[in-house]
Amino acid sequence: MNDLEKSKKIKNQVYEILKEVIDPELGLNIIDLGLVYNIAFQPENTINILLTLTSPGCPMGEAIMDDIKYSIKKPFPDYEVVIELTFEPAWSTEKVSEEGRVFLSLES
Predict the structure, then answer these.
(1) Alpha carbons 18 and 74: distance in angstroms, whole number
(2) By CB atoms within 10 Å of each CB, which of 17, 21, 54, 99 scores lowest?
């Protein structure tokens, strides 16, 4: 498996893992909430996550980031997990997936 194939496989695995990380306030996973802007894998065994929160003062931010690291480290114990927090662009309900919109009753 070449580096590109390995990168794609790991990114897909991480994406699925992050679908299990739940925002404790809203009860919805961070993928469907639209909080994950990017997942990148570096050949030196680093997984980078570009993440936002629903607001800069989100009281659950640390808990979410800890859960991300813990969840990724279980299947990837030899990898460094780097989370970059950004608020550009700011999160809005427009970033929520269709499934998430139904769950949050944003659409009927």
Answers:
(1) 12
(2) 99
